[in-house]
Design a protein that fits this description.
Number of strands: 16
Order of helices and strands: HHHHHHEEEEEEEEEEEEEEEE
Strand content: 35-45%
Distance between the termini: 38 Å
Helix content: 25-40%
């Protein structure tokens, strides 16, 4: 029954996704997608119930499978559609009024003037909205100097909905640029009195803000650059959004990455002899890039995952190994725990 339900799930999943995109193009949707994205933990609950029912052979698993097949693409679509044009429905409505006026043939000049006034009002409102968004954007730069005795370092990065990047090294211990129109970020650096190991914590402030997206889209971007000399321990917790995390230039001993509804691209390197990577995600699309010279073992656990591990051998128990794993001089372990997600590992 599980195989039949899997086929049912993906069939309804694709059908729902297609209908949503078609409805969006036709201007039939006027939904607060951000509120749907915030409900992604409900998908994990549904997935857990579905697994329990399937393993018990209950006929009710048929119902939960259908619910998941509709809820999952709706939530994912909400994440990818947050930048949609909220004026699409109004524009179609204005077109319909113009068609009716052409057919009636009455008061054409008056209606034309009203339409022009409405268009000018819309343009003025959109211009004012964009100006307010631009004026409210805060840009900050955080940095900490590198010291000669720093051999190890710890990075703790937290963020809500937005885009987060880690890229090219810097001569500083850390350099981070932030841009946001809601709230602000803070950074602290604490050095252990004995080991002198610095712990860097970059996170949003604890202030509570009422987010009103009617005045423009939410902007939250964090770009991080680290020093390549220390051996790094990283703990990253993200909400919804996009993560482009290229840590291939750094010696990463341990990396923990938690995310909700997100699109993640993680590029790992071969600087450390042994690396431990733990990924804990909700409704997400995750691509991990691993050097071919590193022996990689994947330990996977999750409810409904679409995996692409073409170059790995299945050794049973949810574990996969790369070719030549035992003979590799450097080794890496990736632990993946996903709710409803797409998980892909690429060897480069």
């Amino acid at each position: 029954m599980r195989r039949r339900n899997n086929g049912l799930f993906w069939g309804i999943f694709l059908l729902t996704f297609g209908v949503l995109f078609l409805a969006r193009r036709a201007g039939w949707l006027d939904v607060n997608w951000h509120s749907l994205v915030d409900l992604w933990p409900v998908l994990l609950i549904l997935a857990g119930i579905n697994i329990i029912l399937e393993r018990r052979g209950s006929a009710a698993a048929f119902v939960t499978t259908i619910m998941l097949a509709v809820a999952v693409p709706t939530t994912l679509f909400g994440f990818f559609a947050h930048d949609r044009d909220r004026y699409g429905v109004r524009w179609n409505h204005d077109d319909d009024e113009e068609d009716n006026n052409d057919r009636d043939g009455d008061d054409e000049d008056t209606e034309s003037d009203d339409d022009n006034h409405d268009e000018n009002t819309d343009e003025a409102y959109q211009s004012e909205r964009q100006r307010r968004v631009t004026d409210n954007v805060q840009a900050n730069t955080f940095s900490e100097s590198m010291t000669a005795d720093t051999r190890e370092a710890v990075l703790k990065l937290a963020g809500g909905a937005g885009r987060f990047t880690i890229s090219d090294p810097t001569a500083e211990l850390i350099k981070a640029d932030t841009r946001q129109n809601v709230g602000s970020y803070s950074m602290s650096v604490d050095r252990d009195a004995t080991t002198r190991i610095p712990t860097i914590e970059l996170k949003p402030t604890d202030e509570h803000h009422n987010i009103d997206l009617s005045d423009g889209k939410l902007e939250n971007r964090v770009d991080v650059h680290l020093n390549a000399r220390p051996v790094w321990t990283m703990d990253i917790a993200l909400g919804a959004g996009q993560g482009d995390l290229d840590v291939s230039a750094y010696a990463v001993r341990s990396l923990k990455l938690a995310a909700g509804a997100a699109d993640l691209d993680l590029k790992l390197g071969a600087k450390a002899d042994v690396s431990d990577v733990k990924l804990d995600v909700g409704a997400a699309s995750v691509t991990v890039r691993v050097p071919k010279e590193v022996g990689c073992r994947i330990k996977k656990d999750g409810a409904l995952n679409l995996d692409q591990l073409d170059d790995f051998s299945d050794v049973g128990g949810g574990e996969f190994v790369s070719p030549g794993y035992d003979a590799a001089a450097k080794k890496m372990t990736i632990r993946f725990d996903g709710g409803i997600s797409r998980f892909k590992v690429v060897r480069y």
